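Researcher: Sequence recovery benchmark, item below. Answer with residues only.
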C-alpha cells in the first residue's frame, strides 16, 4: 500500500492534505443540516465549559423562559453571539429536546434558523454564569420563524464518553422517531402561540403536513450542497438524485473548494464553521456545519449525523462562511471548507466526533483528459477517503469526480463523439497488491464523456460488493486516462456470412457493417472453430460483447452460487477479463432456432440445448446493434447406411423452403480432415412436401466416412449443413496353407480377426489373429480345414467376413 503522507494538517501552498495521496479536483457536497435530537438519561459532561443538564434546566424553566444565546459564524471564521430564549423542554417517551426561539435581528433578516447552524452551542444565563445546554439541531421551515430545537448537551457528551478513549460506560440515548409532541404549556414566541410541535421525518414529509393553528412543523434542516459540479450537468443531477434518496435531505448547488492552499483558519472553537470531507480537491464531498465544543484533541460537531454511518474516517477541516442565503422557507449558510484540522472518527445520531491532529486515510486519484483535436491536455489530482470508497452506497464517488473533470476539460455539458479510456485501480488486501486495468472505447451521439466514468464506477462498485464477507479491499490509488474526440467511432452491423459454408473445424465468417457517416458496406473477417461432432444447423449471431453473452435463468443456473466466496485476486481477474465496448461476440448456437436479423436482443431461454461456440472479435468501433441468422434446415438420409467395400449409397435430402437451392455433397473419410466433393445436385422445390428434395448416389466407398451435405446460402438463410455417418464393411480374405494369412482392406486397418472352423454342420470359434496395417498371420497344424475369417472392425472400417476357405496342411 502507498504509505500515508504526513504534511502539516493546516494546508498551505507548500502543504498537502493528509492521507495516501495528493489532490486538486473535487465534488462538493455540503450537508448543512439541522436534525432533531431527542432522548434522555443524563450523561457525563465532556465539554470543558460549564454545562446545565436537563434536570437542572427543567427546574430553572419552572420560573419561566430563560434568556441566552447561541454561538455561530455568520461571515468568515469568527463566531458571533445571537440572542435566544429557551422556552421549554419537549418531552418524548424516550427522551427530550429543547425548544428555543431567537428574535435576534440577524436571525430575522435571513428568515429564521439557518441550515449550517447545526451544532451551534446554545447557552443560558444561570445567575451570571453562561452554561452550555445544547446544540442547535432543528429548524422550522413552514410555519413560525425564529423557532428552533436543540440537542441536550449531555447526549453529545455521551458520544465522546462512549466512543473516544478512554471508553466510558455511558451510552447515548436511542434515536428518536418522528411524531407530534404536545408542549407542557403553550409558548408565546411573539409572533404566535405554539402548543404542539410536529416532527416530520423529512422536508418532503413536512411540506405535506397541513398544520393547525398553534402547531409548528419541525423538519431536518439538512441541506446538501454539491460544489464543483455544475448544476446543469449530468454529474450534478445523478449525484443529487443519489443523495436525496439516501438521506432524504434537500440538495442545492454550492460553492467553494475542498482543497485549501491559503492561510489557515483559526483553531476550532465553539461556534466555528467546519466540514467533514470524504474527498479533497476542487470537487469535494462532505458535510458542513458548526462546532459545538472542543475538548483537548477532540471536537464535537453538528448535533446530528452526516448520514448515521457509525465509525468513519474522514477529513475534518476548518470552514469559512461566505455568507448566508436568506430565505423565508430554507435559509442556509454558504460554508467553504478550508485547511485540514484532523479526522472525523464517529458519525452518530446525536453528533459527529473528530480527533484533532489525526491524519485520515486518503488515496490519490489522478484524472487526465486529452482533447485530441485541440492538442490540449488537462490533468487533475484529488484525494478520496479509503473508508468511504469501501462503502457500497458511496463506492463510486470517484466516478462523479472524474465525470466533472472530463466535463470541465471539454467545457461542454455533453460531448458527442468518442472517448478512449484506461482506468487503472490499485487495490490490496492481506494477501497482496493487485491492479485492475480497464481499457475501453466509448461512442455516443449525445455524450461520450460519461462512458469512462461509468467504467470506473463499475470497477469500484464491484470491489465494494462483498456478499460473503470475506473481502477487505483497500483502494491504494486510481489513475484514469481519457482521450476525447468529436469523431464518431460507431457502426451498424448489416449481416453475417459464411463464405465457405459451415463445417467442423475453422470456419471463415464475414461480418458486414456500415460505418457511422458512410453508405459504403464494409466487412470484417473472423474465424469460428466448430468442434467435431457439433450439430451444424442452428443460428449464427453477432452482437456487441458489452451486451453480455446471454442471461441466466433460475432453471438453468441453479447452484451457480454454491462455490466458495471469491478472493480479491479472483475479483480483480474477472474485472480484467471484461470485454471492451469495441469487442463483438460471434456465436453459433446449434439447434432448430428461428432465424432472422434485427437489432433487438432475444430473451433468455431455459430450454436445454447443445452448447454454443463463441469467439470474441476485437474491432476499433462501437457497434450499436446485433444480427442473427439461421442456417438452412436440412434433413439427410443414406440408403443403405452400411455398404460393402467399394460399394455405393444413395444420399437423399429435404431442404426446408419453397425454392430450388443448390446442394453440394462431400465425403470426409475416417482418419482424414479433408472434405472430398463427391457430387452436386439441385434440390427441387416440392410444394406438396413443403421443401426442396434431392438425391445423389455416392460410389466407390472404401472406408468409413461422414457424408456432408451443404446447402447454398439463400436470401433468408445461411448455408446449412447436415451430416450422416456411413459404415463401409471391411474386405477380408484368407491365403496360404500352413502359414495362413489374413488380409484386410482398407490397408491401414488395425484390429482383431476371428477364425471360424466348420466342424460338421456347425461353425466353431477356432482362434484369433491380430491384424496390423491390414495383415495378420497364424500357423496351422497338419490337417484339412474349412475356415472363415471375420474382422471385427476398426476406426476406418466396419466388420467384414471372408468367403469360405478350404486348405489341407501336410
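Model:
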Amino acid at each position: 500500500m502507498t504509505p500515508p503522507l504526513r504534511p502539516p494538517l493546516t494546508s498551505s501552498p507548500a502543504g498537502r492534505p493528509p492521507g495516501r495521496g495528493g489532490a486538486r479536483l473535487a465534488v462538493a457536497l455540503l450537508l448543512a443540516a439541522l436534525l432533531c435530537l431527542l432522548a434522555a438519561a443524563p450523561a457525563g459532561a465532556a465539554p470543558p465549559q460549564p454545562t446545565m443538564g436537563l434536570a437542572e434546566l427543567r427546574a430553572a424553566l419552572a420560573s419561566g423562559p430563560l434568556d441566552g444565546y447561541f454561538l455561530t459564524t455568520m461571515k468568515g471564521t469568527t463566531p458571533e453571539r445571537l440572542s435566544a430564549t429557551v422556552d421549554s423542554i419537549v418531552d418524548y417517551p424516550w427522551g427530550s429536546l429543547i425548544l428555543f426561539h431567537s428574535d435576534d435581528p440577524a436571525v430575522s433578516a435571513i428568515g429564521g434558523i439557518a441550515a449550517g447552524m447545526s451544532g451551534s452551542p446554545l447557552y443560558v444565563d444561570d445567575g451570571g454564569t453562561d452554561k452550555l445546554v445544547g446544540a442547535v439541531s432543528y429548524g422550522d421551515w413552514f410555519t413560525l420563524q425564529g423557532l428552533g430545537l436543540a440537542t441536550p448537551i449531555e447526549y453529545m457528551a455521551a458520544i465522546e464518553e462512549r466512543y473516544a478513549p478512554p471508553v466510558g460506560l455511558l451510552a447515548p440515548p436511542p434515536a428518536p422517531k418522528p411524531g407530534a409532541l404536545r408542549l407542557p404549556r403553550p409558548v408565546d414566541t411573539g409572533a404566535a402561540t405554539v402548543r404542539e410541535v410536529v416532527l416530520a421525518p423529512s422536508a418532503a414529509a413536512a411540506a405535506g403536513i397541513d398544520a393547525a393553528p398553534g402547531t409548528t412543523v419541525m423538519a431536518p434542516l439538512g441541506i446538501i450542497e454539491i460544489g464543483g459540479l455544475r448544476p446543469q450537468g449530468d454529474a450534478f443531477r445523478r449525484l443529487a438524485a443519489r443523495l436525496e434518496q439516501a438521506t432524504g435531505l434537500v440538495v442545492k448547488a454550492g460553492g467553494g473548494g475542498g482543497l485549501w492552499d491559503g492561510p489557515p483558519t483559526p483553531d476550532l472553537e465553539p461556534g466555528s464553521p467546519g466540514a467533514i470531507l470524504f474527498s479533497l480537491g476542487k470537487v469535494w464531498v462532505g458535510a458542513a456545519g458548526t462546532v459545538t465544543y472542543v475538548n483537548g484533541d477532540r471536537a464535537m460537531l453538528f448535533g446530528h449525523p452526516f448520514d448515521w454511518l457509525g465509525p468513519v474516517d474522514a477529513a475534518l477541516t476548518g470552514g469559512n462562511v461566505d455568507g448566508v442565503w436568506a430565505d423565508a422557507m430554507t435559509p442556509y449558510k454558504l460554508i467553504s471548507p478550508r485547511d485540514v484540522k484532523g479526522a472525523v472518527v464517529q458519525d452518530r445520531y446525536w453528533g459527529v466526533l473528530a480527533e484533532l491532529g489525526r491524519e485520515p486515510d486518503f488515496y490519490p486519484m489522478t484524472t487526465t483528459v486529452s482533447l485530441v483535436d485541440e492538442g490540449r491536455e488537462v490533468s487533475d489530482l484529488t484525494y478520496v477517503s479509503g473508508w468511504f470508497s469501501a462503502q457500497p452506497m458511496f463506492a463510486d464517488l470517484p466516478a462523479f469526480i472524474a465525470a466533472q473533470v472530463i466535463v470541465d476539460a471539454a467545457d461542454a455539458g455533453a460531448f458527442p463523439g468518442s472517448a478512449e479510456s484506461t482506468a487503472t485501480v490499485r487495490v490490496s488486501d492481506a494477501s497482496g497488491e493487485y491492479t485492475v486495468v480497464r481499457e475501453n472505447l466509448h461512442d455516443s451521439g449525445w455524450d461520450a464523456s460519461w462512458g469512462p466514468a461509468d467504467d470506473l464506477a463499475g470497477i469500484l462498485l464491484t470491489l465494494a460488493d462483498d456478499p460473503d464477507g470475506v473481502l477487505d479491499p483497500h483502494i491504494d490509488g486510481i489513475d484514469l486516462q481519457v482521450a476525447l474526440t468529436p469523431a464518431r467511432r460507431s457502426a451498424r452491423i448489416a449481416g453475417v456470412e459464411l463464405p465457405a459454408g459451415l463445417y467442423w473445424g475453422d470456419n471463415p465468417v464475414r461480418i458486414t457493417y456500415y460505418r457511422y457517416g458512410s453508405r459504403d458496406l464494409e466487412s470484417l473477417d473472423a474465424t469460428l472453430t466448430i468442434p467435431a461432432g457439433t450439430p451444424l444447423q442452428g443460428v449464427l449471431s453477432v452482437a456487441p460483447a458489452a451486451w453480455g453473452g446471454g442471461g441466466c435463468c433460475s432453471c438453468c443456473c441453479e447452484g451457480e452460487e454454491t462455490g466458495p466466496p471469491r478472493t480479491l485476486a479472483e475479483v480483480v481477474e474477472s474485472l480484467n477479463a471484461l470485454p471492451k465496448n469495441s469487442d463483438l461476440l460471434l456465436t453459433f448456437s446449434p439447434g432448430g432456432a428461428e432465424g432472422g436479423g434485427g437489432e433487438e436482443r432475444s430473451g433468455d431461454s431455459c430450454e436445454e440445448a447443445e452448447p454454443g461456440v463463441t469467439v470474441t472479435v476485437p474491432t476499433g468501433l462501437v457497434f450499436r446493434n446485433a444480427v442473427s441468422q439461421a442456417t438452412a434446415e436440412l434433413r439427410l438420409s443414406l440408403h443403405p447406411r452400411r455398404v460393402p467395400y467399394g460399394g455405393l449409397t444413395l444420399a437423399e435430402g429435404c431442404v426446408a423452403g419453397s425454392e430450388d437451392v443448390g446442394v453440394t455433397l462431400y465425403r470426409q473419410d475416417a482418419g482424414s480432415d479433408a472434405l472430398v466433393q463427391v457430387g452436386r445436385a439441385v434440390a427441387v422445390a416440392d410444394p406438396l412436401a413443403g421443401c426442396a428434395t434431392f438425391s445423389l448416389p455416392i460410389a466407390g466407398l472404401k472406408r468409413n466416412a461422414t457424408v456432408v451435405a451443404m446447402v447454398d446460402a439463400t436470401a433468408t438463410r445461411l448455408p446449412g449443413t447436415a451430416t450422416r455417418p456411413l459404415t463401409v464393411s471391411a474386405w477380408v480374405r484368407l491365403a496360404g496353407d500352413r502359414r495362413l494369412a489374413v488380409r484386410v482392406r482398407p490397408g491401414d486397418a488395425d484390429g482383431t480377426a476371428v477364425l471360424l472352423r466348420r466342424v460338421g454342420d456347425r461353425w466353431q470359434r477356432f482362434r484369433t489373429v491380430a491384424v496390423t496395417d491390414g495383415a495378420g498371420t497364424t500357423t496351422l497344424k497338419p490337417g484339412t480345414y474349412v475356415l472363415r475369417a471375420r474382422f471385427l472392425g476398426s476406426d476406418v472400417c466396419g466388420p467384414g467376413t471372408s468367403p469360405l476357405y478350404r486348405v489341407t496342411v501336410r
